[in-house]
Protein 1
Amino acid sequence: MRENATKTKLLNGQAVLGVISNSSDPTIAEICGFSGLDYYLIDGEHSTITTAQVQEIVRACEVSGITPLARIRSNDPKLVLQYLDAGVMGIVMPGVKTADDLDALIAAVKYPPFGQRNLGPVRVAEYLQGSVSQGDYVQYANEQTLVMPQLEDQEAVANLDELLTVEGVDGFLISPRDLAMSMGYYDGPGHDEVKKTIAGVVEKIKAAGKVVGTTVANGDQARALIDRGVLFCLNSVAGMLKNATNDFLKK
């Protein structure tokens, strides 16, 4: 298993910039890597991407030096295992609401003694671990795999104190649009109450020593968030393309 450069930067207190993509085309990931982004988040929730296609996307990430992460639609341990065995180096899990949800996620992501992930002689382990012993591989894989559950609704926010106590979680990704929807604001997260809630969540996560992540629309917004201590900044391939296209057409 390769070093998770994105996790290393986060552990050093450095911000990371990346994109989420629902494209099954490995070329998109390759371009993002050669463009200098830190991570590429494969969207396994709002897409038709198959686990077979994930493996090819991961290969493109490895070639271009970008960290492959994935948002997976459920914490089904067999589904999580397929993504990880393909070489994904971090998991973003939507729909997390309780500590039990997080415990189940950690069990699926981590090898024993921290979890219950099964070990197979597959590509992520260089097919029988290459020259590395099984014990060393298991320890290294547990250290390198990033775990970033999403906070998407009021129940998750209400349970945040409990969620922050779960071992093995590196940080939390705040989803402003879904959180606003759960608060009854169906037109978006631009309302003062939503902003106040998110600000409180950011401070709680930071105080617990965990990584804070959220979505950003542009570089100026990313800079402002980084100045507030948000280190995991997420744009989208579609959003960046649309913004670049609009800017190109205007000029």
Protein 2
Amino acid sequence: MLKAGVLGAGHLGKIHLKLLQQSTKYDLIGFYDADKNASQKIEEEFGYKSFPSMEALIDACDMVDVVTPTIHHFACAKKVVEAGKHLFIEKPITHTVEEANTIRDLAKKHKIRGQVGQVERFNPAFMAVNHMIDNPMFIEAHRLAEFNPRGTDVSVVLDLMIHDIDAILSVVKSPVKQIYSSGVSVISETPDIANARIEFENGCVANLTASRISMKKMRKARFFQRDAYISVDFLEKKCEVVKMKDAPENPDDFAMILTNAEGVQKQIYFDNPQISENNAILDELEAFAHAIQTDTTPIVSLGQGAEALRVAMQVIENFKTL
């Protein structure tokens, strides 16, 4: 078992502590949080060992899980990597692209594994269909949330949209060509609503919308490709796959047949992939353990985390703030 520690014991940090303790792949050593009063309460209530300093925790671990506010990611990650310890770090990987590239390069130098916590990659609905997403040419994603002061220290792009940016970059095998975007600040000092149009060199276009002041929650993405439409509901953990194939000469009475303007007939059929219940955060942590133990590239590498941040920052830079 890998000795694991957590830096940051806020809302998400407590979840990570609980799951690392449950995991059969990790031995939870303890945590460090700069808030001494909160640390004492957590130690007394849950029994997790509180370390007196970040350095003491890092020294005691094989893998360190960074779940601090984003502004502190770089300083924490740098200490972890330079100590030669494996790094799991929540999204976004760092506060700036330069910091992300530095962490990526340091990890290579010190020969450690690193994974970014892009939890939607482990959403069972997305996992059920991602192997079917083949050269999509149009993508539409909506990620809407009710207002919550937690997370408003960063733009809605880094808070919410980056989930969809990362998922889209993982299935579109082409460099980004151009980005158009707009953002509106309603309650926060940073934009609360954002829209982005990402154009790829292969012609694929992705339209993304994110809001954290909506009346209802929504996390949906739709992928359109040649002869197929794939829908993923990340919130409800459901997916739908609609495919088309050349119609048979003698279709049965219940077959759904479409005829295009050229007279070519296509048959529509539905594929309902099996969706397995899971705990996505536990799965991403254990997938990282597997990557460490087998010396393989993590599912969401530091390089991928840096690229998702680069695209997100370009979305922000291109805002036409209203």
Protein 3
Amino acid sequence: MIRLVVMLYVRFPLSLRNVEDLLFECGIDICNEIVRHWWGRFGPIFAGGIGRQRANRMRAFRHWRWHLDEMYVRLNGKMVYLWRSITKARSSKASLPGRATKPQR
């Protein structure tokens, strides 16, 4: 039941009182402070377990790699193309021969 309460609060955009009301309609009478306490105590434990499960599933693949999506971010009030920033940082450390780079826009 604790896992259900914490997952309701974390997974959906619900307030503590909304979770309390949903559970009351199901016949479970708890206070919103109990929901907050359980979230603070068990939330990191559940999140760590989920992260470990995801990592283990990903490691099961033979060629496991993380891929970063191309995106724009705002740095110091200026929009910066993230891929270009990463490739510049890599090329300043050491250039990799034979590696294709993205065309700059």
